[in-house]
Write a structure and sequence with these properties.
single chain, alpha/beta, Isopropylmalate Dehydrogenase, 2 domains, 7-stranded mixed β-sheet
């Protein structure tokens, strides 16, 4: 049984979405057990609404009523708010061998600080990295690593990100040889600053990684790549710019299709296709970003996650546990050092 902690505080739709998503996960998988961490009174209120719809033996509640908000300073909050749901979840994750993973919608900064200070990294990993996935034009997905955990990186960091993200896509998506690209200002090998040039050489000479060269940001959703490697600053800008552009285009399309009677009639003819496109681009259908490189699995879901996003985040955490991702990362590091 894979026991997964679900932090029920810190999100825009907490705790209802967190609890509902957790129940949906155990109802869709026989090997998942969840521990709901947060204000027990509010959690039981949500569970009462779902009474009779789930296996109560696979759901438990841990009382931790305090919340770390986005207004709190991450490192201080992790050290001082010891009754918070995130602190207690990280504590359990570190201390209990029967607990495998954590899914949280809480403050990204606090999650990162807590992961390093309270949980620790896989031996040999210099820095953990956030690795979300996005849908592509070809119907596949692409992973972006790092997307905000490390603003400043060196070439060794980026090299390790490529190794971890490549293994992640192998184990979670079943891609035998993920195509790994380096985010840069041009596709030519000589392009970029010193960091990008040094990283290019490391990736090119590592036979464990299927490195296909540099990638310009406009090609992120092309479907030509499975993994894109970047520092956290560039990755965060890339991710948010892409998400913002897609949302703006969808709003513009909706506005145009409802601007006149003629366009409304046309919209009715393609309504099914438009809804499919909307669902395909909705992050709630893909879950959160895995934090690669930690001693145990952490999935950071979007702060505005709804039930489906929590569900997919839990299923993602369970998937990487079933496929022993952390063990494969540790083995890859050990093999490299030999």
């Amino acid at each position: 049984m894979i026991k997964i902690l679900v932090d029920t505080l810190g999100g825009d739709n907490s705790p209802s979405a967190n609890v509902a998503g957790a129940i949906k996960a155990i109802n869709n998988s026989d090997d998942i057990e969840v521990v709901l961490v947060g204000d027990s009174e509010k959690i039981y209120e949500q569970l009462d609404k779902l009474a009779g719809t789930y296996d109560t033996s696979r759901v438990s509640v841990y009382h931790a009523p305090d919340e770390i908000s986005c207004n709190d300073k991450p490192t201080e909050a992790i050290k001082q708010k010891t009754d918070s749901s995130l602190y207690q979840a990280l504590k359990m994750l570190r201390e209990r061998e029967d607990v495998s993973a954590l899914v949280t919608t809480g403050s990204t900064g606090a999650v990162l600080a807590g992961a390093v200070l309270k949980l620790g990294r896989i031996r040999g990993i210099k820095r953990p990295a956030l690795c979300p996935i996005l849908p592509t034009m070809s119907g596949s997905v692409v992973a972006v690593c790092d997307s905000g955990a490390n603003v400043e990186c060196d070439s060794l960091n980026l090299h390790q990100f490529a190794m971890m993200a490549s293994l992640y896509m192998q184990k979670s998506r079943g891609i035998p040889r993920p195509r790994v690209a380096l985010l840069n200002v041009g596709v030519e090998e000589e392009k970029g600053d010193r960091l990008r040039k040094e990283t290019y050489e490391l990736l090119k000479n590592d036979t464990r990684i299927n490195f296909v060269g540099n990638m310009e940001s406009r090609d992120l959703l092309s479907g030509d790549y499975d993994v894109v490697i970047c520092d956290g600053f560039a990755g965060n800008v890339l991710l948010k710019s892409t998400e913002g552009a897609c949302l703006s285009l969808m709003k513009m399309l909706k506005s145009r299709l409802t601007s006149s009677l003629k366009s409304k009639m046309g919209a009715l003819l393609v309504k099914k296709d438009l809804m499919g496109l909307k669902d395909f681009m909705d992050y709630n259908n893909y879950g959160g970003a895995i934090l690669l490189g930690c001693q145990k699995t952490i999935v950071k879901a979007h702060g505005s996650s709804k039930e489906d996003s929590i569900f997919h985040s839990i299923m993602l955490a369970a998937s990487v546990e079933r496929n022993s991702l952390r063990e494969h990362i540790a083995h890859s590091l050990a093999t490299q050092s030999e």
